[in-house]
Amino acid sequence: MLKTKKKPQFGGMAPKHNFTLNPYPDLRVSRCPFCEKKTGQRKIPLLIHVDPMYLIALNYTCRYCKTCDLLVGNKHAIEHLLAKIFYETDSYAVGNEYLIIGTVEKKDWREGLHRPKDLAEIQPHVSDFAEYYEEIRVSRPGWYPADQELPMLEPPVSQEWVKTQFDSQRSNSTKK
User: Apex CA 132: angle with CA 15 and CA 72, to 5°?
Assistant: First the structure.
């Protein structure tokens, strides 16, 4: 009998929901990228890890496909909210790598608004994503011959979630 390798799990709850990011700020995902059915909305606290050591539970409205149990987050909107938060608390973190880990139970997210929780308190109330898909990609609009592969539309680069030259110079000088 073959043993399947279990992927590491961060949260204490069973994984639920599938997740992907929409990197196109002007494209709204009104239909599921997998089953083509209409999507609804679901407001849910997403747990986001921002390098080097920040965990943020962000109550965010995702597009949601009931059939595929798929949450679709708008990358630019999430980065806008993260930039807004970190410019106020730690501007050095703006532009760092981040990972959307999973979801937090709504009740525990609300409690965290009144009294911030540490990692040990929040971890048992986190659900990892069952599947984390690559970012959505769409083809460039236009007419193409049937035998030609459709060219992909490159998503725009974030204008807000970027390291400024001043930030990178400051962080290099503090490391020395």
Answer: 100
